[in-house]
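Hello again, I could really use a second opinion on something today. Take your time with it, there's no hurry, and the full record follows here:

___
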Amino acid sequence: MTTAGKALTIRTMAETILAAVQDHYAATSPAVSLPERQYIAPGSPDQIAWDCEQLVVSVTGIGWGQAPSAGQSPSPKIGAQVSATAIRHVIYDVALVRCTPTEGDPDTGLPNAADIHAAGLAYMTDMGLLSQALVVACAAVRTGLDRSALVEPGAVNPAGPSGGFHGMSAQIMVTAGALA
């Protein structure tokens, strides 16, 4: 039986994920910088304000059994026995938010198409970099876990633009014997 303080800490895994994304971006050539604002957030990922450029790691939830993407239900079935040795999962959300060009062309009031195009190209670069950063983060989280643990990156999904910002988010699912 695992005692408090002896299990895998979701806090440590979140710090590992954030550091892996930071390191992956820092190693790009040519350099692609991340927003200055980078943190691990409390609360629900869909309630975090996207009102500035930022990189945010948060938790969407912890449940019984394998993480949903691993092909099993995220909660025990009615009537199923639950034991202290049952596997658990934690799902992390990684979100990257950037500014969307909104300055209007003096003649039309519309944002400059060249600026939107450049932001679109940078967005595509971010999507690819974030996807690969999550693979690197999964490998870093996987280090030190027992053989039965699963660490899986999810798809990078677009969000926005809205309110002058656009972004993307992805999940990392960790299934392990004990979480704390």
User: Anything to note?
Assistant: The chain has a mean pLDDT of 86.
